[in-house]
Design brief:
single chain; 108 residues; alpha+beta; Arc Repressor Mutant, subunit A; three-stranded antiparallel sheet; 56% helix; elongated; WH_DNA-bd_sf
Length: 108
Amino acid sequence: MKLEKAAKQLEALGNTTRLELYRVLVRAGDAGRPVGYLQEKLGIAASTLSHHLHRLILTGLVTQERQATTLICRANYPVMQDLLGFLADECCADAGCAGSSVEPEAAA
């Protein structure tokens, strides 16, 4: 994953309403949730919800599918896993340097 893509996704999740919206969709599983449910659950205006969904869709974190007259929103789990992997891929990669228990800043 490229740094710029991860930054855009994290930026989209950096808004409290979008983060709450995304968490609702992640909890919903593969079935997703209708837009009407999301609006009621979050207690926000349709236009506001549309704006926040648009930001999440642009980054690939959310998908939408029309089923008859209902618009279903889903968390895009492969994209979420890519982002989580990007954040964790190099976890502790530099921790074993030189076998010293002294932090580099403390040694200076």
